[in-house]
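Private note to self, pasted from the team thread so I don't lose it. Backbone tokens:
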């Protein structure tokens, strides 16, 4: 977080400079960095069309939007204090909380379902998940895709992960490696997923694997202390989230290839219109009342984080899990705007 500070006023110009400062305080005196990823949805559309920026300005803030390639990068930025608000999946949130990042999950961006999938490249010889043995599979580590890939191997397909060469690649790197023929399969989300599906076969997805374990989701997290110190921004930010999600769920049929929201999403995170519309259809976006319910921030998210952390311990991604993940989930902001 970067704070714009005022220079001390010289006594001789106290009256003039004081009036200038008061006039300027309503404008973006505080600049914050918000990290996002290449994940389609109402959140990205509201970034692109300026709704968040307008609301933040009214509250006295300026947002510096920064795109990150992975949850791991955003977690590092959160831990360092450089990014107070960021997008992380359920698995990344569990890992970050366990490692001591004092964050709170305050909004469920999406229920992932079919929008994260395991795809085998044409010509790889992989027809079903069990064929992954001895193959190269790429996935962004400590992501929801990574979690469900490992769950699928150990709890669904009876594969020892050590029998598979699992590579830690970010979504853009996955697409490049796929096009070079360096990998046999990948587990990832749009727009990278849409790209590799053009020359590959989907052999499983997070809806199937989630039914055998726990659902995965993408969420917005905030540094706990920062949220407490900046209630105006949190209120303004969450209001835009609630409005944009309500608008989408009421008018999703109008989000076509030629619609402004879809074009905005493509412009901001890449991909193309048809793939973006398809990706939107694979996700569900909880409204504010659903956010605060027992299904999500009222209880379900805590269960998902708990199970994710236990599995990460089993896979030696983290050394131990916490006894309680409830302190890392905050439904108050969603309750205030529902």
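Design output:
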């Amino acid at each position: 977080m970067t704070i714009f500070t005022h220079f001390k006023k010289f006594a001789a110009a106290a009256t003039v400079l004081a009036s200038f400062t008061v006039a300027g305080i309503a404008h973006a005196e505080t600049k914050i960095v918000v990290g996002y990823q290449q994940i389609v949805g109402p959140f990205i559309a509201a970034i692109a069309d300026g709704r968040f920026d307008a609301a933040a300005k009214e509250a006295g803030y300026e947002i510096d939007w920064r795109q990150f390639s992975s949850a791991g990068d955003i977690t590092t930025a959160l831990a360092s204090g450089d990014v107070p608000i960021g997008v992380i999946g359920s698995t990344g949130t569990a890992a970050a909380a366990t490692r001591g990042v004092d964050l709170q999950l305050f909004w469920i961006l999406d229920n992932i379902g079919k929008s994260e999938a395991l795809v085998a490249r044409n010509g790889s010889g992989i027809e079903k998940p069990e064929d992954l043995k001895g193959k190269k599979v790429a996935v962004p580590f400590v992501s929801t895709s990574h979690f469900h890939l490992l769950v699928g191997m150990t709890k669904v397909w009876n594969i020892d992960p050590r029998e598979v060469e699992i590579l830690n690649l970010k979504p853009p790197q996955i697409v490049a490696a796929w096009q070079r023929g360096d990998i046999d399969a990948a587990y990832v989300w749009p727009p990278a997923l849409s790209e590799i599906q053009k020359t590959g076969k989907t052999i499983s997805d997070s809806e199937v694997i989630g039914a055998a374990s726990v659902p995965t989701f993408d969420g917005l997290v905030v540094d706990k202390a920062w949220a407490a110190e900046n209630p105006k921004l949190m209120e303004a930010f969450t209001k835009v989230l609630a409005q944009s999600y309500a608008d989408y769920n009421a008018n999703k049929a109008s989000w076509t290839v030629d619609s402004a929201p879809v074009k905005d999403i493509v412009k901001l995170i890449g991909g193309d219109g048809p793939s973006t519309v398809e990706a939107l259809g694979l996700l569900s976006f909880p409204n504010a009342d659903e956010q605060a319910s027992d299904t999500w921030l009222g209880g379900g998210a805590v269960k998902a984080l708990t199970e994710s952390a236990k599995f990460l311990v089993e896979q030696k991604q983290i050394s131990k899990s916490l006894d309680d993940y409830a302190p890392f989930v905050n439904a108050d902001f969603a309750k205030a705007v529902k």
